[in-house]
Each structure stands twice: as structure tokens, then as C-alpha cells.
Structures
1.
Amino acid sequence: MSVPYRRWAAMALLCMGYAQAQESANHLVGDVGLGVSAAPVAVAAQSRSTGVVPYLNFDYGPAFARIDTFGVKLAPVGYGSVELVTRAMEDGYRASAPPQARRSSSLPLGLGTLQVTPVGAFMANLYRDLGKSHGAMLDLMYAAEIEQGPYAFYPQAGLEYRSASYVRYYDGVARHANNPFVGLLVEAHLGGHWYLVANVRRTWLDDSIRSNPAVRRRSLDSGLAALSYRFD
């Protein structure tokens, strides 16, 4: 397991402990498992883009884990709640080209909300990078749900905004970026409490990022495949 994911897995356990201290009658509802992820970066890098990661998608009292996002629900609002959130992002790398600059993974912390409405789920999270970029990040996403027998499909679409400070540190360009994306999460019920999960996403890079000669991609494809056990 990579260092960033060990750190965020520990944070998830701390959130669970907080929830247990707040409401001891609560119990874990959702999925816990193990998977393999692929998350390349825009510039040519020596860093490995694949690795074994925990798969965590559950609620435990006011605490929660949503694959790469962890947090605590602060107050109810609308179809969801206001949340204190962080995200496990493996955006750090060591560049392949001289001078082979090393970039540390970001440490996002902020506020957000997940609104699960009758027409789908809407997510908005605003972060401040407590790491070296000191940039701002805004993640917006819509997800629908389609059930078909033992399968559940969750098509997704959204936008990643990254401030000029973030883009300058990671992509070498002093301009903000708006990166649209589409994705699909698929759950297959294997029987009993066991599920196979696959999540894929394509993100199109903003022109500001692609203006860097070291960036030779128009888009980034990331994915996750995991085996999980569902707690009711």
C-alpha cells in the first residue's frame, strides 16, 4: 500500500473512532475491501501510477469514507449534510525529464456536501491544499444510479477546478484549470455480502495545463478495481 493511502486509511480509522465516541449505538454500513488503482499524472514521471489500495465506501455514525474521500457530517442540510472533508490524492510525482523535480502529494482539507436527491446525487467539495502548493481545489460531480439484476451502474460527470497556485506547483503553468470528467462505477453482486467493484474515469486537461511542453496528454484515464465485503 502506498504512503498516501496508508495515511488516509489511518484518517478513516480516526473518523470511525470519533463517530463511535459520539454515538456508540451506531454501526458500520457499507463496503470494506481491497483493490488496485491506476492514477497517472499529466507530466512524464518516474512515479508508479498503479498500486494496491484499500477500498472504503461506508458510513459510521457521522463519519464516512467514499473511496478516496473521507470526512465527518457536521449538520444536516437539504437531502444531505454539510461535511468536513479531505481526499486521498496521489498527485505527487518525480519528473522523468531534467531536473527531475519531485512534487509531494497534496493534503486537501475543506468543506463540502453530498445531496442524494430523487434524480441523482450531487456533490460539491471545496478544499485548501495544506501541502506545498497552497492552492484551492473545487470538485463538482453528478452521479445517477441504474440497477440491472445483480449489477448497479453509477454514471458520473463533473468538473475539477484547480487554482493557479495548484497548477503552478504540479503542472508548471501559472494559470488556473478547469478539467471536466466523466466516469462509471459498476458494482457486481457476487453472492452473500461480497461485491466486485470497478470505477473508471476520463479527465480532459485544461488548455492551461496542456500549454506546458512537458505535458503530452490531452486527457488522463484513471481506474480502480476492488473486491469488497458489505456490512448492513
2.
Amino acid sequence: MVSEHSDATGGETAALALKILVAGGFGVGKTTLVGAVSEIKPLRTEELLSEAGELVDDTDGVDQKVTTTVAMDFGRITIRSGLSLYLFGTPGQDRFWFLWDELSQGALGAVVLADTRRLEYCFPAVDYFEHRRIPFVVAVNCFAGARTYGAQDVSRALDLDRGTPVVLCDARDRASGKEVLIRLVEYAGRMHTARLLDSVG
């Protein structure tokens, strides 16, 4: 997605807007990350957890969670002049995964948030993006009281493809979240460039 805007000299410069997904398991911090980094009031589609939902949503380890995203979160952040990211947070529960195909259309890449206390909950997101060849980084959300693991430990535990970045972050902190997004844009840019070169080579 590219738009034009005037620069200080009156000339036209290209403004680049990139679509990024923020994915991961239930209760891992997707809504928190989008809200922390967004420069606009984020759009949220959260609903209170219901008794009916308790039968299908595994809240083990996130007992204090009282709401859940039922469609998507949306936010925007300007990384630098002329480069903005549109963030789409995906719902984490299995029953909403049918929305992922629609949300992933046109995405440059994705952030897969991980919680080391419940690492297995991000396997579906990792598999989803690997199978569709969508570049992604794994961002380990460092929750208070959780055991700290290094990036290599997490990479091995998730059996990630060689070179897939793993970064530690605090989803509540804007600077930390922005650094994750910058890493993703850099990595996705390298991946897309390499694929383009392969296709013409």
C-alpha cells in the first residue's frame, strides 16, 4: 500500500504503509502490544469471557483474563517519516482462526507473540505463517514471574526455520514493541528481496 504526500519543497514523495499481523495464542498480549505502540486510539473488538466460552477456551495460566478479542485489534504506528505500519491483531482462540486467512491477505509479515509459561500455544501461529511463507518474528513477551529463556532456547523449543528471529519484549512498553516491529520489517524486507531475486535468477 503506497500513497503520495507533499514534502517541504512541494514535491511529491512516496509514503509507504505496510500491513503487519500480530498473532499468537490466547492471552499472550496481542491486544496489549497493539495498544501500547499505536499512535491512534486502537480499534478493539473485545468481549467479556462467558461461561459458554469457558467450555472451549483454555484459560490455564491466564486465570485473571476477563475479556477476549473476537474479531481483530487495529492500530497504526509511524516508524519514520514516510513509513507507517498498520497493525492487525488476530484472535487467539481456535474457533476464530477462520478470520486469519482474511486478515493475512496483503501482509508484509507477522509478529508471533509467545509466553514461555504456555509456549505450546504459539505453535499454531508458527505453523500457519511457515506454511504460507509469510515472514515472521517470534516476540517472547516477558511476563513477571515467568522463567527467562534465551532466544536460542525458544527457537529450538519451537523448531523454527533457520534464521527466524526471536526477540524478547515487554508488550506493555511502546519502545520495546516498536523495536520488535522494526526487526520484523527488516527481516521481512530481506526475505521478500531474496525471493524476488530467486524468481528472476
3.
Amino acid sequence: MSAIPPGVRPRRLPGARRTGRAALAGAVCAVLAAGLAGCGADEDPDAGTNGVGKLPPAKIQARTRAAAEHADTVHLTGNVVSKGLTYKLDMSLAEHGAKGELTTKAAAFQLLRVGNALYLKADAAFWAGEKSGASGAAQKLGGKYVKVPASDPVYRKFSGFTDKDTLLASLLGLRGKLTAKDRSTVGGVRTVRLAAGAGAGGVLDVSLEGTPYPLRLQRAGGAGVVRLGDWGRRVDLKAPAKDQVVDYGSQISGAH
């Protein structure tokens, strides 16, 4: 191959400039096309999802209720307003029991239900209130698991927080005409938002990934916000050790 003499410019072959410009233009167009596709002007918001976002709102509600009913377990966290009281929930629920903690403005206590046996663990101050100032009994009950008699008002008051089907049925109710237009995320999971009464009747985020479980609920009337997760994850339930249990008999209190 002959060397190019000094000072002599290499001659560009005909068409090379046009080819280079065409390649550059093609690359720019490809980048712009990718960018426009990512901007989502015509992008399907449900692409790669479980498809429930394409369904009518009533069918989305039916699907998410069915998913919740068929799951063996769920973990609930958040705040619930009931009968004028605000409860902070942290409960793991299964088909035949539950465990977790409830917190109110006045007290915090643990709940455990194994089958029909309900146990409540709280400090002495809580039991002093339940026993209308019976400090001796309160000291005995404080820090122990108290096996709550089924006939006692305490059982009726708190057992609903340990019943998966009952609690979900009350929480997942939406009031008003349903719409499902918005998309969001809960814990990094894409959701479709099921709104009732333009949001005033509650807003439920339903998973667009995998099983269409309900993941977050804004309750109607500002009655709390609850997150639902760990669907189907095992919940270990067993009765407390005998030395940690106080069986108080047929009645704990008549105060509530």
C-alpha cells in the first residue's frame, strides 16, 4: 500500500459524506423514537401487568375480594377509626387465629387468638381501667397473657380484630359509584386505584403484579388508612406458655 505524500489530503470517496450523515440521522431518530415511546403518549399503562386494570371497576373489586378471601394469611398495618376511637393496627391474621398489637391513645396491648382461645397482654394500668380501679387484680394481670372468657365484653370488643374474614369484609367495603382510572405504586408494586364516590367512599389500591391483592385502603369518611401485605406468608400461632397465662375466670370486667 503506497504512502500518502506529506501535505496531500486524502480524497473522500463519493457518497461517504452522505452515508455518514445518514447513519448519524438514523441514530438520532432511533434515540428520539425510544424517548417518545418512554414518554408514554401511546404507552399502555397495563403492559406487563396481570390485566385487572383493563377490567370494569366492579370486576376489579370482585377479583380483589376473591383474592383476599382465598389467601390463608395477611398482615395489616395502619389506623382504623371505630366507634369514635382510633386504633393503630399491626396484626398478622390467619384462617384460625391471629397475633399482633393494637394501640389506642390510652393504651397498647397485644392480642393473640389460637382457635377460639383469645389472649390479651397489657400492662397493669390497662387492667386497672378495665377493673374499675381494682389495683390488686391489675397487678396480677399486668404483663401476662390473660385468657379472655368468650362471654366477657372484652372478648366481643377485640375478637373482631383477630378474625381475618370479618375484619377484611368490614375494611374492604367501598361506598358509592366505582371508578378505576388512576395508576400508582404501593411498596414498589404497581397498582390500579379503585375509588368509590370520587374517593369520598374509599380508595383501594389493587396490585397489578401477580395476584390482584388489595394493598392499601383509604377508608371512607377519613376513618383510617390501612396497608395489607405478606399475603399467604406463614403465621406461626401457638398458645403462650402456661406460666405466662392468667385464666381470670368467667368475667374480666363489666366496664366495657
4.
Amino acid sequence: MDLKMLFMIFVINFSYITLNTIRFMLTMKGYRLIAPLVSMAEITIYVLGLSMVLNRLDDPLNLVVYALGYAVGISVGIKIEDYLALGYIMVTAILPSSTEQLNLPEILREHGYGVTQSFGQGREGERMILEILSPRKNERSLYKLINETEPRAFIISYEPKFISGGFWTKKVRKRNN
């Protein structure tokens, strides 16, 4: 058993899959310059690692270590993407109408969030509906702020693909250039 070779197979596939996961996330978020550059490094590492395993198929442990590097690479890639928190989220917070006196829209605006307020009718009466745009890096603090102010809020979030108009447009363009 060649431990050095097993370690190299693991590290190479770990690196490949970590880059693969990050490149996929960059591609999905529209990073048109950096995603292809990451893919160049990714495919180079992939060919190197795969050739190492294919040339040593006589030892099944090589394949097991290759698969382990794959699994760990995905996990680490996801953690890196969460840390980078690229892009924006759109959060819809639906509040009981009795929360109007809490003035959550103004509290959110004071914290720098873009908020559009409207009213709707729910099963149990009128509801305040807040549409909130936020950088993903602020996602957790936004949820915390909403829950501290109104713990009964119903919250839904998604990632917008296209943003145009409104006071956020200049901020979004600056970050994407």
C-alpha cells in the first residue's frame, strides 16, 4: 500500500471537486469571467487525478480514496460557497396586521435593507407583506432581525436571477463589476 499515492489521489480529487462545486455556483450566479478561469484549473486537476487512478486500478483502495476525495470536496465546496455568500436574496416576510405599530419596515430600512411594503388578506385577516432585498452575506442577520421584531412572521426566501430598477440597482451594479 502506497500511502503517499493514496494521499495524492485524495488531495487531487478533493481539490477538483471543491473547485467544481465553486465553479458551478459561480456559473449559476453569472460570474462570466471567473467561472471559466476556475474551470481551467478544475479540468487540469481532474485529468491528473483520474489518470493516477486509472493507471492503478489493480488496487481498489485507490478508487475508494478517489471517491472519498470526491465526497469531502463537495462538502468543503459547499462550505466555501456559504462563506463567500455570493449574490442576493429576496425575502418575503408576511406579518400579522397587528404588527403595524412595530414599524418593521422602517427598522429594516435603518439597517440598510431595501423594503417594499404592501398588504394582503390571509386566512385569519389582513397581513402586512414585506419584500426585502439583501446581499446573501446578510441573510442570517436579516432573519434574526425579523424574528426579534416579529416572531410570528412567515418568511420565504429565494435568489433573484435579475435585478433592475429601484435604489439597489447602483449597489448591485458596483458589486458585479
